[in-house]
Amino acid sequence: MSGSIDMLPGWALVYGRRKVGKTYILENYVSHDVYMAVRLDGSIWIRGMDLDHLGAVGDVPRIVNRLLKEGNTVVIDEFQRLPMWVLEDIARSHPSGRLILSGSSMRVSHEIMGRNSPLLALLRPFKIGPVSPSDLLVDLSSMYGPTKAVEHAPILRDPWTVTFFEEKDPLKHLVEMLPHLVPGLVGEIFSADERELTRTYSAILAIIGSGDGDPKKVAKKMHDRGITRTGASSNVIPYMNNMVEMGMLERTKVYGKRKYIYSIPSFPMTLFYYLDSRYTISDGSVPFDGIRPTAENVHRSGIESLIADLLVEVVGGRKELIKTSDREIDILVTVRRKPALVGEVKWGRASRADVDNFLEKVKGLKCRKVFVCRRRIESDEVEVLTPKDLVVMAREHIEKATEHLI
Question: Exposure winner among 26, 85, 399, 405, fewest CB in 10 A?
Fold first, then answer.
């Protein structure tokens, strides 16, 4: 992603939810002449010029326009904190120089990409999400070995967790930190003029994080809580799609149907909302030992999601769902609307009987069949992948992608 931004000429918009590494990428991997960061109080921190800060935004258009007309590359981080008139004035310099805007507010989706935006069609958008599973597994395996790499990856895929990561009992340390961090991370998504929507968005996140990703179920619960006037899914889907655009939610198609199920792609956020819905961990008074079994179950689901994302990345397809009354398959990757890979993850004890049960579930699907477990099980009918195999797969994928770029 960072290489793509750096190689692209012209103006660009870098966006995504809070704490996915946007600032780090821009500061360290994207070449620029001047870097500006807009603070919460409206002042501007500057690097690359004689002055190191501006107390107010009034001089920003004049300075930025001059730099752009001189052919410089200017980065403005947290640009959504600027008044719209500032952005409108800066837009007049297009296509001079190179402007890179970075932000994480919902305003990015609503206004900067909207039809009334002064920057509409002037910026090439780049959405930054969590760390790719292949990169993460390869890096972590060199530090912890393949099995621990897979187990730690759902936690560390969100870069903000690195500061709080403890190799000894990482799940316990993460759960203890979540009530102090997640509400603030979610709250910062909304700009001052969107505060009245915070309750709606937060409620949707909480419902989906608790395990209900069907829009109909989300809408019913929102109505039951008095947040929406009716229980129609049309009342919540626009909000959910906004959060998909920002990287707060993920939308997965149900195979063979015109239906989508929503989930939170961040494992730490999913863990917080799931545990909070059952044990109210947000008040910080619940001992971890009492909720450890539930946290470990959610963790195993996080491992399953990470492996599914890795297989989607390797195959180059689309993640879909098969969940019916008589059949539920953990992983389905489609290519051109047809199944290309089906898989199951058994991270606890796994036996030949589990492989046979998996084969029974996927009978009739003519595609690659993958069974993932911690220790190898011999089978001629299915491709059994261990943590070591996953790391090798991730490394080969990275090498192929690098060769393609060269």
Answer: 405
| Residue 31: CATH number of its domain | 3.40.50
CA dist 331 and 328 (Å) reads: 9
> Distance (Å, rounded) from C-alpha 351 to C-alpha 378?
10
Q: How far apart are CA 391 and CA 401, in angstroms?
A: 15
Distance, in Å, from the CA atom of 244 to the CA atom of 16, rounded to the nearest integer, reads: 10
Residues present in the chain in total: 406
pLDDT tens digits for range 74-101:
999 988 888 889 989 999 999 999 999 9
Report how far apart, in Å, the C-alpha atoms of 253 and of each of 126, 233, 319, 333 are: 23, 16, 8, 11
Say if residue 137 is in the same domain as residue 52. no
Residue 153's SS3 state is: helix
Residue 241 included in any domain: no
| Residues 347-365, mean pLDDT to the nearest whole number | 94
CA distance 183 to 180: 7
Alpha-carbon distance values, 99 to 69, 92, 115 (Å)? 11, 12, 20
The span from the CA of 8 to the CA of 30, in Å, is 10
Contact 321, 255 (CB under 8 A): yes
Strand 318-323 vs strand 124-127: parallel, antiparallel, or unpaired?
Answer: unpaired
Residue 24 lies in a domain: yes
| Structural domain harbouring 139 | 132-162+250-271+302-406
pLDDT at 187: 67
Does some domain include residue 260?
Answer: yes
Q: Indicate the number of domains in the chain.
A: 2
Q: Do 138 and 70 belong to one domain?
A: no
Query: Which of 101, 127, 153 is a domain's end point?
Result: 127
**CA–CA separation, 370 and 355 (whole Å):** 10
- The pTM of the full predicted model, rounded to 2 decimals, is 0.83
Does position 193 have pLDDT exceeding 60, yes or no? Answer: no
Residue 94 main-chain phi, psi, to 5 deg: -60, 135
